[in-house]
Every structure is written in structure tokens, then in C-alpha cells.
């Protein structure tokens, strides 16, 4: 993936500011130790590792620039989410939703934004808002269907019973 | 137009990630 996103100045700036960029060449007739370790079966395979080298996110196959930027922000969000750093995860998921509304990963970002907000606040209404947002903005997405169980969560607090 | 300054060694990338607190973006590529 030498052309496409890597020749885009906006992408270059983002990747150098937010990540340590690393390239590993693949050889199919003599698989490298890194290929074996990370089970690389197709190229490009793009991984996001934390600062210990642990994999948190994987993209397989060519991705156009805007979609890739959205994936990287989402992947950073998943890294924070996996470490229970919900405020930072929420910030990354919101960046995907606001800056890349047409990207393929955006419905998933809406889903995990709601889950991260739920973990941060313990308010189940965050999950109901996931369902409402996905069914209104991305009704054909798999993530809209996967949010269906949250449709029964009330957005309003139940009315208090009359005083006895 | 500039170019991305790629690290080529995984262990050095991990060391840099520890020092900078940045995650690693790792591109497995094939020249073919």
C-alpha cells in the first residue's frame, strides 16, 4: 500500500502525530517470524498495537484514505476501550462519527460510543441512544440490527407512583 | 510532499511507543 493513503498529506500528518509508523515486508515463500506471530495471511494487513506491542485492532485489505483514517481513530478508541479508559475511547469514537460520517466503520463507532458511555456512566439510556441513532442514520447497517436489543430501554425515567 | 518516516524493526517501534506513549501503526506489506 505505497500509493493511496500514504501519498495523502493529511494522512501522513495524522499517522506521524498519533502513531509510531512501522512497516514489515511479507514473503509468502518464506514467512517471517512476525508474519507467523501475528498470523498474517493477506496483504496489506494493518495492525494497531499498544506500547507493549499487543495487537488491539486489525484491518485486512486495501482501504481508501478517508475510510482508513476512520479505522485508525476507531482502532485507537478500541485500544482505550480495551484498557477501560472510557473517556479517551469516547473522544476517539466521537471523532470518527463527526469527522467521517460516510466511512464504513462509523456505525460500529456509534455502537461502541454507546457502550463506552454506558460503562462510564452506568446509564443504560446510552445504549438506547445507540439504537435510535443507528436506526435513523444507518438503518441498513449490521450495527443497527445488532443494537435492536436496546430498543426496549426507556429513555425517560418511569413515573413515580402517586403518593399514598 | 513529504514521506512517512517508517520504522522497520518491531522491537525498536515498541521501544519508541513506550517512550512516546503512542500506539504503533503496523503495515504488513508485500512487494508484488
Q: What labels describe this entry?
A:
heterodimer, A: 164 residues, mainly alpha, two-stranded antiparallel ribbon, 7 helices, 49% helix, elongated, B: 32 residues, alpha+beta, 1 helix, 34% helix
Concise synopsis of the structure shown:
The complex is a heterodimer of chains A (164) and B (32). Chain A has 164 residues and is mainly α.
- Percentage of helical residues of chain A? 40-55%
Helical content of chain B (DSSP H or I, runs of 4+): 25-40%
Q: Structural class, judged by helices and strands of chain A?
A: mainly alpha
Mean pLDDT rating of chain A: 94
Element order, helices and strands of chain A? HEHEEHHHHH
Write down the oligomeric state.
heterodimer
Total count of helical runs of at least 4 residues of chain B: 1
Distance between the termini of chain A: 71 Å
Tell me the span between the first and last alpha carbons of chain B.
Answer: 25 Å
Number of strands of chain A: 3
Low-confidence stretches of chain A: none
User: Which structural class do you get from the secondary structure elements of chain B?
Assistant: alpha+beta
Q: How many H/I helices of chain A?
A: 7
Residue share in β-strands of chain B:
15-25%
* Gyration radius over CA of chain A: 19 Å
Largest sheet of chain A: 2 strands, antiparallel
Low confidence ranges of chain B:
none
Task: Label the overall shape of chain A.
Answer: elongated
Description:
The complex is a heterodimer of chains A (164) and B (32). Chain A is mostly helical and 164 residues long. Chain A is 49% helix and 10% strand. Chain A has helices spanning 9-18, 33-37, 65-82, 86-99, 106-121, 125-137, 142-146, and strands at 20-25, 45-49, 55-60. In chain A, strands 2-3 form a two-stranded antiparallel ribbon. In chain A, helix 3 packs antiparallel against helix 4, helix 3 (65-82) runs parallel beside helix 5 (106-121) and helix 4 (86-99) runs antiparallel to helix 5. Chain A is elongated. In chain A, 37% of the residues are buried. Chain B is α+β, with helices and mostly antiparallel strands. Chain B contains one helix and one strand. Chain B has one helix at residues 10-20; one strand at 24-29. Chain B is globular. Chain B starts with 9 loop residues before the first helix and ends with a strand. The relative contact order of chain B is 0.18. The A-B interface holds A 1-2, 6-7, 9, 12, 15-16, 18-28, 34-35, 38, 40, 43-53, 56, 72, 75-76, 79 and B 1-8, 10, 13-14, 16-18, 20-31. Strand 1 (20-25) of chain A pairs parallel with strand 1 (24-29) of chain B.
